[in-house]
Amino acid sequence: xxxxxxxxxxxxxxxxxxxxxxxxxxxxxxxxxxxxxxxxxxxxxxxxxxxxxxxxxxxxxxxxxxxxxxxxxxxxxxxxxxxxxxxxxxxxxxxxxxxxxxxxxxxxxxxxxxxxxxxxxxxxxxxxxxxxxxxxxxxxxxxxxxxxxxxxxxxxxxxxxxxxxxxxxxxxxxxxxxxxxxxxxxxxxxxxxxxxxxxxxxxxxxxxxxxxxxxxxxxxxxxxxxxxxxxxxxxxxxxxxxxxxxxxxxxxxxxxxxxxxxxxxxxxxxxxxxxxxxxxxxxxxxxxxxxxxxxxxxxxxxxxxxxxxxxxxxxxxxxxxxxxxxxxxxxxxxxxxxxxxxxxxxxxxxxxxxxxxxxxxxxxxxxxxxxxxxxxxxxxxxxxxxxxxxxxxxxxxxxxxxxxxxxxxxxxxxxxxxxxxxxxxxxxxxxxxxxxxxxxxxxxxxxxxxxxxxxxxxxxxxxxxxxxxxxxxxxxxxxxxxxxxxxxxxxxxxxxxxxxxxxxxxxxxxxxxxxxxxxxxxxxxxxxxxxxxxxxxxxxxxxxxxxxxxxxxxxxxxxxxxxxxxxxxxxxxxxxxxxxxxxxxxxxxxxxxxxxxxxxxxxxxxxxxxxxxxxxxxxxxxxxxxxxxxxxxxxxxxxxxxxxxxxxxxxxxxxxxxxxxxxxxxxxxxxxxxxxxxxxxxxxxxxxxxxxxxxxxxxxxxxxxxxxxxxxxxxxxxxxxxxxxxxxxxxxxxxxxxxxxxxxxxxxxxxxxxxxxxxxxxxxxxxxxxxxxxxxxxxxx
Length: 781
Fold this sequence. Notes:
Blueprint: H1 3-12, H2 18-30, H3 33-40, E1 46-57, E2 61-73, E3 80-95, E4 98-114, H4 118-122, H5 152-159, H6 171-175, E5 178-198, E6 201-220, H7 225-233, E7 249-273, E8 276-295, E9 299-302, H8 314-318, E10 338-357, E11 361-372, H9 379-382, E12 383-394, E13 406-420, E14 430-433, E15 446-450, E16 459-472, E17 477-489, E18 492-496, E19 505-509, E20 511-528, E21 532-550, H10 558-561, E22 574-577, E23 580-583, E24 589-592, E25 598-599, E26 610-614, E27 619-629, E28 632-642, E29 645-647, H11 684-690, E30 696-698, E31 701-712, H12 715-718, E32 725-739, E33 772-780
Antiparallel strand pairs: 1-2, 2-3, 3-4, 4-5, 5-6, 6-7, 7-8, 7-9, 8-10, 10-11, 11-12, 12-13, 13-16, 14-15, 16-17, 17-20, 18-19, 20-21, 21-27, 22-26, 23-24, 24-25, 27-28, 28-31, 29-30, 31-32, 32-33
Helix pairs in contact: 1-2
């Protein structure tokens, strides 16, 4: 119960006077709890990266080894991570026609962070311990102070029972009492041998082996508020000396093992015969990846120093058999563990070739055939050939071409087929155990993990591309232009089906989506002097999508508004909304139907919804400027995306902590004042309003994504220190953002169009990207 809720109940029951209620509410209104969290919870992120590289060798052998260590202090309390990356590569030439390459990579990382994430802590609701008006630090002393988290009457009741723990709570100190630590080790080894069989013809064979281990461990200390509260609440009524949650820490662990190998054999040919040039490769690849994941049962009464834990009856606890004898109830979930295993195998044959005549005409083609174990026993569904063919006409190499200011003019085109599969679906019925104990049966429930689906096909994309490459003024200015048409057929997507079959959705091949686009890149030197160079790289892309067929079953209006969808006749990632028709005299929102009538949200049908635009940008722009003056380099990148829509947050009825709650409907007649916000309510009425068109906004934005300044030290100076090169670089990111949306939210950093995002209390939850600054020093010996 929040402080405001408690005061309201206390006032209604006569425990406090109206004057006292008003006084305390006024005090809460004046508290800047969010400001304190911004000051004390967040901090400047600090990342350090150290690199060292060593290389050397002879005519027959070359070796390169490098090590990189990255340490990062997170931007909030108690968050840290470190990473060590080691690479080694050796090339050996034992004979004139034989080359051998060996390589290895080790990637080890450790991280730690609170069990309660910052996002969870700041997603306020009526069940939250922390609220925007809570002061986590005493303004007078600057020291952490306890906040209101437990009903005072509950505290008084528990104080009379011997053996129970105190329920004081400070979010800042409590975060550090529940920590998650992760260790990840990835090892990769590989090698290859290349043998020259004849001039221009060689054969290569090799492969890689990878093994990964990931260990995650979360410990909630017995002194944390959650564990103290759970310990007290689960105390036996009949025997207060008995506690259904043992005294001690709570431990959850998981260990994941991955292993993969890839073997490849390839034949290469590359020769030129006068005006003719031929290049071709052909080969076979076999790969296998296994994932073995194991999540252990939750351990209670854990002692980290001794490595011991208490015996716990998971079945009776999860089934709720102890609940009638508990003081308050059970607030902790006792996980029983889980095991999963996946084995993915692919076999591929591939080849590509190109032929060029007289440096003017170039034709090429490629083909690949993939076989996977995921599409069941019928071979015709396992195979998927993908291929492409293309050609280039190098007009500028023609004898008749004589345009002095154009030194390169190529035109090209290609046509091809690509494919994709869903690794989470297959032809067999797969049953998996649940993660807990059923309160109905007292046993482990089983669920349908993967329903049988024998009709799955490979998703395929047919791409047509036309383009040109042009260079002007002796390559001082370079331009590429491309047009493409991508037709994605047999799209894989989740579709609603008859729930009486035992599952409510099924992945199926349900449609076709066409994407048409233009891409333009322009690069060149605006100024090129002896000591000063100004280079500009600009990109512009346009994409227009259209859903041609899509056999998804949108059975209700709500199924169309929860996020971007594909619907026939509309662009991909279309956004649909309820058409807001105002507030009635009871404070409830109304919506227009297709016939122009005002109806309640529960009566809105799919055909009544309004299309509000696409979540996919139509235009993407990029502009990079690079300046060099003597030993100084300055570069900055500007980006922009336009032609898409986004959904803002707002008060919808139930999210009463949202900042617009004060603008809500309160009394009959308020609806005539122009207010768009409904009354306080619960249930689905607020859910409908969350997805009304009043929350749609233009998603366009402009951003200074990156700026860097580098200084290269004089070679004459650094040679005295035994260095061949040295430079220092300062870099900044997220330095400026201009948006069309009213909340100044970065559309790249947050997506409010996803399911449920607008029914949480987003008015206090958006955390905009903070500016980032980097300082680097590079030394070459």
